[in-house]
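TL;DR need structure tokens for one chain.
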Amino acid sequence: MEEEGRSVVEPDEGCATQGPRALGCTAATVPVSREDMEAPVLGQQQWEAVQERRSRGQSISAIARELELDRKTVRSCLRQASWQPYRRAEAASLLDPHRAWLAERAPQVEYSARILWQELRARRGFAGSYVIVRRAVAPLRLAAAVAALTQARFETGPGEQAQVDWGQISVHFGGVRTEVHIFVMTLGYSRRGFALGFLRERMGELLAAHEAAFAHFGGRCEFVLYDRMRTVVLGTSGGRPRLNPTFAAFAAHWGFTPRLCQPYRAQTKGKVESGVKYVKRNFVPGRVFRDLEDFNEQLAAWQAEVADVREHGTTHQRPIDRFAEEARALAPTAGHASFLQAMVRERVVAEDWLVSIDGNRYSVPFGLIGKTVQIVRQGGHWVIRHRGAVVAEHAVLAGRAQLSVRPEHGPGAAARNARQRFSSPAAAQASDATREVEIRDLAVYEQLSELAEAA
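>> reply
TL;DR here they are.
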């Protein structure tokens, strides 16, 4: 009969010969039930040995004696359809509610456990220690490193895919340090690139840069790859990316399909990222620029004289030579109407009779305060309409926080203001055009004042 208990520590023989009182000199024997002990974990070979002996008809007791296992262990093994490695159940952690956030945020801070811990405590009410965060970040950092080492280069056929990205560089314009945002589009097959500098990265600049790139290449690819910039994608809905509506309309207008990098895997657009680094390292150093226009003029010359004709490190051919083959596969864009010029923007006229467009403000007739106007870009001008009638035109201003005010749009005398507020824009403009301002001598106003006092 099997014993139900056993000694955890056997008494020393010397102590045993000295009598019962001498047992205090060593660890005592403590009976421990086998049920209180963690069941031994069988390796795959032991599990297979148990299954093989049972298939030969051996009893559980015989298998247990031969393999020196507990009968309960043998029974448990026989109940398993296949061998399963032991997995210790993970204890609940204070970090569990934040793991999704952690996986998203970690690549953005280069897997810095210290920064993540600080943000968790400051923004998300995390009360755990830095050590917990450090342990959680370690496998994420390792997975990213392995992915970077094993990343296979993805090649595309002519005209199949282009990649787009932004880069930032600080330069001096007339002695003033300015941050320039460089838009880069790289064709996947030929590696020919297009770059253009801007002072910001908003929707207007993104769309204008695309149209300039299409004009430069004489066509566009079937697919264009982006990371998850806010001007392209607003988030996910039902597990699927939700494109910015303006950008989705732009893509439909030009007939290309936007594609997005996998979350936390922006390196999948490595061709254009290499192009951004190439512009920063090869074009910018040692150059002097007067302004953004001069920057872009020099950038265009550099692309034609240097970037297009150097031997590419991956293809070992000149991009301009491979482009000769890719150009035939591009969807032609010549003669296609500009989306920017076709896009109608609506604005409500403010109390200062100005409307805001791309960070600058433009005047409209004073009588349109509070009314909604429609704005369309035509070439280098903004055309502003109300109820289908053109009420103002302005040249497009460069930069931001600029004003374009037409004197004929502003308020005149109080009576004229009242008439304009309640008249149609066309009538107000006709009245302004036909009315001449009467210039009176100041003595007239003095006489009127004396008459008022006498009355």
